[in-house]
Amino acid sequence: MKEHLSEEINEVKDEFEEYVNARLDLAKLHTAENLSRFFSGMLIKMGLFYLFFFVLLFISLAVAFWLNDLFEGKGVGFFIVAGFYLLIALLFYAMRKVLIQRPIIQSFVQLFFPKYTQYDESK
Fold this sequence. Notes:
Keywords: Membrane, Transmembrane, Transmembrane helix. This protein is mainly alpha-helical.
């Protein structure tokens, strides 16, 4: 009887160890999937940002040269374009929590906790 009970306890122990190992493997797979999704998304966004930067650079140069010709001045167009970007930078800095922090926090929450869809709006 004791041998039978001991064998059953060993079987339960072995099954429990297998269950824990399976859960750990599942957690590792979910983590690998989430991290690979995150890094591939970041790589795509960085590539698009890089290309958009050059488009914006050449458009800015074209507008600055056009404004120089329009105002017949040396560098006036460049100062106007620089002032425009300074204004955009100040607005962006003022709205950084709404434009950057909250969306990033929400995307991380959705990435790692897909069932939880809303971030605490009080922050």
